[in-house]
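Re-run with default settings, no changes from the original entry. Doing this only to confirm the output is reproducible before filing.
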Amino acid sequence: MRRLACYIWLLASLLMLASCSNTKNTALTRAMQSFKARYNTYYNGHVAYKEGFEAQEKGNKDNYTEVLPMYMTGNKATLSIGSGNYETAINKCQKTIKQHTITKRPEWNSNKPKKPKDKIWLSQKEYNPFLYKAWFLMADAQFHKGEFFEAATTYAYIQNVYFSHPNIIAKARILEARCYAEMGWTYDVEDLLRRTRRDSLPRRYEPIEAAVRADVQIRQKQYADAIPNVEKAIKSVKRGYQKARLYFLLGQLYHKVGEDTKSYKAFNKVIAKNPPYELEFNARIQQTEVFSKGKGKQMIKKLQAMARNPKNKDYLDQVYYAIGNIYLSQNDTLHAIYAYKDGVEKSTRNGLEKGVVLLHLGQLYYEREEFVKAQDCYAKVIGLLDKDREDYNSINERSKILDELLPHAQAIELQDSLQALARMDSVERMKVIERIIEEVKKKEKEEAKKAAIAENEANNPTQGRHTAANNIQTGRQQQTGEWYFYNSAVVASGKTAFQQKWGKRELADDWRRNNKTVLADFNQVEEADSLSMDSLTTDSIGNVEQPVDTLDEEAKKRQEYESDPHRPEYYLKDIPFTEEQMENSNALLVDGLFNAGIIYKDEMENFPLAERTFLRILDVFPGFAQRDETFYNMYQLYYRLGRMDDAAVMKDSLVLGYPENKHAALVNYPKFEFKARYGKQIEDSLYQEAYNSYLNDEYQRVVDLNENAGKEYPEGQNRPLFMYLTAMSRLQMGDRAQFLNSLKEIVEKYPQSSVSELAGLYVKGLQEGRLLASGKFDTGSIWERRMGMAMGEDSLAVDTNFSADKFVEHIFVVAYPHDSIDEDQLLYEVANYNFSNFTVRNFDIELVKGDGIDMLQVKTFQNFDEAFIYLHRLENDEGMAYKLQGLRTFIISTNNLNLLMKGKSFADYFDFYKHSLGVNAKFIYDENSLDEPTDIPTPEEQEEMEYGDDPYDDAEEDEENYIF
């Protein structure tokens, strides 16, 4: 019996070992491969995924001042959290799929008839009943890692593999739509969800679909439509933090549509879930705002009590922000400003919350036309806000305008204040100065008190390390003075001094050069002489002061008092008491008014303020040197406002009073109104005519059109383009001297023009003794442009030939003009094609920006033949061939690509590609060769693939919901 038992055990073991192979497809092999897949590598991947998700929950930081995104992945900073765990999960899933896939069809008894369901079952692409979970886990990990393209591709592939499983297809479609929503592809989301509904949606997936719909609706600000979908999604969420977070979102949506009672209840549900304190705190803050109508005083008292709670010391910016919002809802702007200022001053975090408070404070100052204070807020807020905000560009633009306005606004405020003090009697003046001195002393005491507290906390070992470090830093800053870039007045002063010396320069390397690529030698000598003269004048003459030792005691004391902000003399020294001092003050004042008025008119489009400013100049300063320009700006202002009678008055004042003014003839031109309305279109058509003439070799016609446009539209937007075309025409006509002079003029007058850099490259090449290439230059063909010119490559001297070596690494390239297509869509389509057609090879895809031409590169192929097979298969795929219509597809070796980007043109390579690589020749190849692995596994690797790793026979899958 014992021997029989041993034989039975041995036979069973052999059967079990035989069933371990995934090259067979029987009920036993399917069961065994499913078991091994679940409890080997998949288990480890699932654990890693859960750890990554939990890490994201703990590290996620929402912006509670805005409507929350539906998923945590809507916060870009969250995507980097747990990425290592997600990468582990992805790798484990890939390994699970590779080791335990069963693609071989099962044997069928030919005598047994096939029913329809049998035919469907036999047509499957995957027979391991568990493996779909590995696919979903891999896609979910890609999604939470922020790899939305890859996740969408995986979900699409799941639908392809499990085409006979409608439930799997429905879930994969919904989750693929979720990826599209994150990428902003709204149309594709709607298409997928519509197809899912059409093919019947299983009841258990309705909450997931509702969440995706809500995500899209929130992004489109369709808050009323999103509410029922969020409510449906919440019901299926099991995790407490995610449920509380969605209730917070629901409360925000109710508040947006005016249902504050429901909003208050939703925030109550957040608090009831006992979430992390920051989420609970913000829910309580939101409750005070939604219930502030008619109960403003009550809610403000509640918020002030929250501010006194030591537990909320790190959230004071949000508390005072909420107080300010309540005041603002009651149209009490002054108290709102006070509350926002408290929020800024008492904030312990230089983060997003403080940035939002600063933004609202700056907006109030801006609306009240207190531009100096507004600039201070906007200068600080730019570094605190997320650049992905929808209104970030407008905020940044306003900040730049305020930076430009600041020196003029400061000059107006200062000179108005000094002149007001000069007009007061001595008693009243001294009272004002004494009040200022008291304010200075009070502020110094407050700062000293803060510094003492900070130093005490820093030296207190019971304080947290983070708080102590912050306070030490604060104490140092208060002891040594505020850091330069936190002091907006000092920053503005520095900007003004910089612009006075260097002009307006973009923030970039080599900012001293107007055109970084060219003309570095044009004015170097003059600039050097100018700098040396400046230094002599400033250091040797301008700043020479009489040694203090030679001054008498009274002069010493006066100098000491004038430098002490606690003494009246400090303020009296700048007040314009004498007639000469008043003239100097008026000169500074009117200059500030004129420049500010132009900014109000052209940059801010604050026409009423611009009108008041210009009228003040005309009424108060009749001797202003730029009075004629003031009349012209007033004429433009009234013309834009449609006040034609007032515009006519300003026009007459300009033409009759200042006939020599450059604008007088322009406004007096009979067809001025016509040119003002249609001038841009006319100039555009003239340039198009000149360009066509150039292409048709009508060079004299180009010169004539340029002269005509220069007279009619001397300040037209196409002026540098006209000059460049004319310069190239001069070259073709043999006038090289005029060609060079014209290019220099372009660079000097229009350094920011798109053709300035190209013009400079020509000049630089000629200055270095290079010869001009013969033949006509086609300015319209970017494919003829030599790559690398914009990066300073020696493109005029490239003479290296392309290599025809086919036994090196090659790259498949799709090339297209910059911004001519949707690159995200192209990337997705190619990635989806690769994933669906090549199960073994994993090609890398990269988007590369070029000089006017961008590329999508698929790499790397071991040789030319492999790349050619890929190209051939792609072009014979009807769907991809249609999608790639109009784009340039070709193959290039890595060496030739480097050569192309360093001075060759695409046209050069296309000619070489056509004639030297034999791409049109026919040769025999195996299309399936790309489906073979590039490396043969070693026996050790083969053994690992066969038996897997880390078996967990007793583990159970955690079915907890991680969708949200």
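The first helix runs from residue 2 to 19. The longest strand covers residues 853-861.
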